[in-house]
Design brief:
Elements (H helix, E strand, L loop, with lengths): L6 H9 L10 H7 L6 E2 L2 E4 L5 E4 L2 E3 L8 E4 L16 H12 L5 E4 L6 H8 L6 E11 L4 H6 L3 H12 L3 E5 L5 H19 L3 H11 L2 H11 L3 E8 L2 E10 L3 E8 L1 H7 L1 H15 L4 E6 L4 H8 L4 E11 L3 H16 L4
Helix pairs in contact: 2-9, 3-4, 6-11, 7-8
Length: 342
């Protein structure tokens, strides 16, 4: 094991894994560490039989430099896990054992949902590993764009055609030039979600700017370059629907934002999804991740109409103190006080 992972070996492991996520790239760690809160703690592993893997990882020091956290990745920084071909349960057990030896206060891993089977086997019966159930949706792109479109529901295909005929204009930006337009739309979505969740708008905007400040998205764009894509649909020159998609061997769509009034009338969201799936297929991506879905029925239905299938997996945490149970209880109390509706 070598830490931080040497970049040349890291890129070789990435290139040899056709299911690698965009967040597996070293540039993602660079973006994550840009504001100085985290340090690169990536780990490069070579097994006795010559297989090589990298675990993208960041560290955050604890009080007075003691303990600290290791995360892959921090909240709102995507999904990761081990990158490299042929990682089986034995390899993952060895990785977990290595992480334990760091004696960090808290270790968090959110692995690729499409590879959960091996992780599940690796932690089976281990009561020291806390598993937090998650659900994500993924579209298989191995059949190409036409096959992907054939897997759309009738309503999604119709919505895409209606948006095209009604003059919805989709701009695809790989330079970060549309980031401010997108961010204004994102904050508008935060206001709508706050109303639905019975959350004070000021609190919702504070949490959104703390979780995803514009500076964070700029760092992603700066470090990922053309792998960071903003798709923005305009209706009568007004932003209607936007999303950010990360590109690698697979694609990861994230942070949808919309003006509900414009989207409902024009199906702009359907057209944005189709344009980005087309681009991902054109670039040879094997899958299109639509991100976390939780237990939201409406969100699952939206994703599944584009041919996405649900994948149940879990976030893994190894903690020396009960950080997660305490955090969950506090969040539950605050939500109860606010009469928050998830």
């Amino acid at each position: 094991m070598i830490t931080p992972a040497p970049r040349e070996e890291w890129r070789a492991a990435l290139a040899g894994d056709d299911r690698a996520l965009p967040e597996h790239a070293p540039e993602w760690i660079d973006a994550l560490c840009a504001d100085g809160r985290y340090a690169d703690a990536s780990r490069y592993y070579v097994t006795d039989d010559g297989r090589a893997f990298v675990l993208p990882l960041v560290a955050r020091r604890g009080p007075l430099g003691l303990g600290g956290w290791l995360q892959c990745f921090p909240p709102s920084w995507g999904i990761g896990g081990l990158v490299g071909a042929d990682a089986d349960a034995d390899v993952l057990r060895a990785v977990i054992a290595d992480l334990r030896r760091t004696r960090s206060q808290r270790i968090g891993l959110r692995p690729d949902p499409a590879r959960w089977t091996a992780w599940d086997a690796a932690v089976a019966g281990d009561r020291t590993v806390l598993t937090i159930p998650r659900r994500a949706h993924v579209i298989d792109l191995t059949g190409g764009a036409e096959h992907a479109f054939s897997q759309f529901s009738k309503s999604a295909r119709r919505g895409t055609r209606v948006a095209e005929k009604s003059g919805v204009r989709v701009e695809i930006d790989r330079s970060g030039a549309l980031l401010e337009d997108y961010y204004r739309l994102y904050l508008l979505s935060i206001d709508r979600w706050a109303e639905r969740q019975h959350e004070p708008r000021a609190l919702a905007r504070f949490r959104a700017r703390r979780r995803d400040p514009l500076s964070k998205l700029r760092a992603m764009s700066d470090h990922l370059g053309k792998a960071f894509v903003i798709a923005l649909a305009y209706v009568d020159d007004r932003p209607a629907f936007g999303s950010i998609t990360l590109l690698g061997q697979t694609a990861h769509d994230t942070r949808a934002a919309m003006d509900r009034d414009l989207v409902d009338k024009t199906y702009a969201g359907d057209l944005v999804q189709w344009r980005m799936i087309e681009l991902a297929c054109e670039l040879g991506c094997t899958a299109y991740h639509l991100g976390e879905s939780g237990q939201s029925t409406s969100l699952a239905q939206f994703k599944e109409k584009f041919g996405a299938r649900p994948l149940d997996y879990a976030e893994l945490r190894i903690e020396r103190l009960p950080w997660t149970p305490t955090d969950q209880r506090l969040r539950s109390l605050v939500k109860k006080v606010l009469r928050f509706r998830d």
